[in-house]
Each structure stands twice: as C-alpha cells, then as structure tokens.
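Lab notebook, bench 4. We co-purified these components, and the gel suggests they stay together. Before we commit to crystallization screens, I want a quick structural picture of the whole thing.
Request: model the full complex, all chains together.
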Amino acid sequence: MAVQQPFELESYLQAKRVQVEAALATAMELEEPASLRKAMEYSLLAGGKRLRPILCLASCELAGADPQLALPTACALEMVHTMSLIHDDLPAMDDDDLRRGRPTNHKMFGEAMAILAGDALLCQAFEMVAGRSPGVPPQRLLAVTTALARAAGAPGLVGGQVVDLASEGKRVSLETLEFIHRHKTGALLEVSVISGAIIAGATEELVADLRHYAGNIGLAFQIIDDILDQTADSATLGKTAGKDLRTEKSTYPALLGLAASRQSAGELIKSAKAALSQWGEAAQPLLALADFITIRNH
Ligand code: GRG
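Here is the predicted assembly.
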C-alpha cells in the first residue's frame, strides 16, 4: 500500500508566493500618471501572505488544470483584496496608520490618491480576468467575472463593510457578526477558491464541495483575525494591534471569549476539510491551507 507523504506547506507556500509576486510585478502596465502607479504598487507589492491567489491556484490544480491558467485571476484577487485594505484603512472607514508593516496608503499619498489607487486596482482586477487570461474559454471567464463582481460588491465586501460600520460602538448579536464576517472577509476567500476550479472546468460536484470548504475557512479566517488582534503585537501583525478592544468593536472574542472563539474556528476548519474528503491526495494543498489559517501568527 502506498504511504501518503506529509505535505510540505512551507515550501508549497514559498513556491506559490514567488510565482504570484512575479506575476503581480509584471501585471502593472500603466506608465502615466507615475504618481498613481507608485501608489498602486506601494500597496500591491508590499508583501502580504498572498493567501487568496494561492487558494485560487490550488483549487485550479485540484480540478486538474495547469495553475498557470489561473494566474491572471489570482492576481485579480490580490488586487481586489489590496483595494479593500486601502479603502478599509481610510479615515472615513477604519482610520488606520499601519498596514503590511508600513504606513497606510493614504498616510503616504493622501486620501484622494488612496481612493483612486484602490479604484484603479479594482478596475484592473476585472481586466486581468476578462482581458488578460489567455487560453481560458470565455464562458468560464464570464462566470469568474460575475462571481468576483458579486464578491466585491453589495452582496459581498461592500455589504459586509456597511453592516460593520453601522455596528461600530454597538454590541451586535453573533448572527450579525457572522453576517459581517461572511460578507466582508468570507466572500472574497470563497471566490478565490471557486474561481480556480471554474477556470479549470471543474464539475459542479467539485465546485459545490469547494464552496462548502471556502465558506468554512472564510469565517474561521476572520475569527482568527479577531483573536490575533487581541493576542499579537503590531510588529508581528504589520497592522495596529488591540484596535478592536480600544474601539469596543464586536468580535468573536468579545462575544464568546478567546477559548470558545478558538474552538469555533477549529470546528469550522474541521468541517472545511471534511468537505474535501472525497478528493484524495489532490486536495492536500487545500487541506494544509485550511490548517494554516488557524496556526498563522499574522
Ligand atoms: C470598494 C468594492 C469596494 C469594496 C471596499 C473597504 C471594504 C469595501 C471592505 C473591507 C474589507 C476588509 C478590509 C476586510 C478585512 C479582511 C481581512 C481579514 C484582511 C486581512 O487579510 P490578510 O491577513 O492580509 O490575508 P495580508 O496582508 O496577508 O494580505
């Protein structure tokens, strides 16, 4: 009987990050205005775990296609994510000074440029999928474009952010908190997983299992983010730590305590992994990525 080798997540992440960093660095074709390019690159090429692009590449591979086909979409996901971080940090939103270990975009370039750099990244994301994804059948690109638009827009990030802002200073129910997390954070993680599979032409059965996996890791990811806000320092996080407590934000640890929050995240990761049980060794990277969500320290 063949013995399954332990999966080397660190080297997997490293190899995928190199691929994603190289693709992001060459994705920017804009020459003028140089000030806009500088502001876009400042945040896009500032590191980050690159989890969303890696999830996309991993699900494309699980569905049996060359992950290179999904690389433009992987870049698009990181562009939407970076845009959301830039806008989230603005004074009108979360008002933060530190992101990915450096001053936030508006601190460097001013609020107007930060808004515009985010807008430009969002638009370029759609160009990457629809116009710069050679070799992928157009109907698959249409499906990914639609899913990405929904994840970024009112049914996803924007809707979650609206409820999050409206909840500031209030003690919200666990149900509302879950709504915020599933929309503000979960929606983009879900489309990250689903899009790679769609590009590969996955069966409906695999897409459904991946959706189940993604829904669970999405919520777990934000619960861990809430826990880290309380337990890690700013230098490790690369963003201001302890902010949720100071701003009296409703979070999982605030509503349930740290131990129960960790338990919830653990249960979600277990369900996520169970959703992929029928896909064998090919699912190893996604299973290891699910574990990475709970063991990460930033
Ligand atoms: C304008 C379409 C549009 C949307 C903007 C601002 C906004 C609406 C939504 C906010 C979304 C947001 C910032 C959610 C937080 C998600 C989160 C946990 C981010 C941290 O992600 P990591 O840890 O960060 O993957 P790195 O830096 O590693 O990439």
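Residues 48-49, 51, 81, 84-85, 87-88, 93, 100, 122, 152, 157-158, 161, 184-185, 222, 225 surround geranylgeranyl diphosphate (CB under 6 Å). Worth comparing against the SEC data before the next meeting. The first strand starts at residue 98 and ends at 99.
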